């Protein structure tokens, strides 16, 4: 299996090289040149496996320069029962009307990012060894909330690595901010950016493509890498949980082998739903992907307006902050695949996005995408209504991001009449967004988010995850805030770690 840049496919690299480097030198994203397919025998084998086995098997089809023994070991360590609250790493909870919620938040930071970021440190350090890399990997991460803590937790004190996380100062929840700023580890650094997530993400990409910065790091025995979903090693593990969900539904008799499902994902950077799309390329029977956005509905408009992408719009801070994004990086990979791997076209489109803030696909190119995707969005009021309705009617407690997906799916079903069973990605514990969930349920707020955990417990009878409860009384280690223009200077902080 070889990988090429979405902007220049003339040079193929191994999966280890792609993972170690994170992003291509031209700013493109590494993508496999082909997709493996799952045979009937493969599906039979997957059905008998636990999540660890399924993850190792799926990764083995993409990471062909890793041995089966390596991937089995990595999966066992990453998805250890004690990290995910038991053997059922990514449980599927079935509600009324054919809705099946794939809960991806039972890991150590209570968000779906754990599903990839618990195994990425193993993949990255092994990749460095495989390509003979002796330099220290400096991992730069831009986060809209959940990726930051999950990456910090995964890479804390991992030998041969240092990690720097950038988050928008006023663009994450108080709980997310506390999780990041109290992170332990001698090799970690956290910096707040005055601006939004797109500012942080764009600045990080500029660092990756800045020759002077890379040369300076090289002189100090360091190299750049990424733990965002621009890194194939972050994206590939996410493919496994959609295939696992299908296997679980088969085992429970909710579907028969070969039955199609819909998949609805709340997404801002497009990585989580792209992983589902790749699972379909492997043979997962999917009828429609439903892309769910909040008020920052740039992706909804892209799908509803014939492939016209325009980030020149107001940016909103919402109750679902992990989706407060206007530049959806992983959409670039979809464009590459939908265009028949037309790297020159993708490079032109990305150049337009960078210079004009917009681009438009041809009708022919978009028609292939439209066959697979639908989309919708909802605002904070509708999100709150959905949280309340899910609790009152189904006794299911959802966070703000999951509620966005449920609302968008219900709107889709009402609009289309499509009754295909749906897997909805539930991406975070409701206790990570206590204030919004309590308000939606009509409860009374306390002074801070750690105190809110007890309020939500009393209000619902549900128990807060232990990693969040353990934040009580912790003193933040990091309080640095910089302008986005000063992000290059922060690299010195990482060198000092």
Question: What does this molecule look like?
Answer:
Helix content is 46%, strand content 16%. It is α/β, with parallel strands linked by helices. It has a domain at 85-110 and 234-432: Rossmann fold, CATH 3.40.50. The strands form 4 sheets. It has a 6-stranded mixed sheet with strand order 4-5-15-10-11-14, sandwiched between helices. Strands 9-6-7-8-16 form a 5-stranded parallel sheet. Strands 2-1-3 form a 3-stranded antiparallel sheet. It is globular, with a radius of gyration of 21 Å.
Percent helix range: 40-55%
Average pLDDT reading: 95
Strand percentage, roughly?
15-25%
**Mind telling me the C-alpha Rg?**
21 Å
Looking at the structure, the CATH topology of one domain is: Rossmann fold
Q: Compute the number of helices.
A: 23
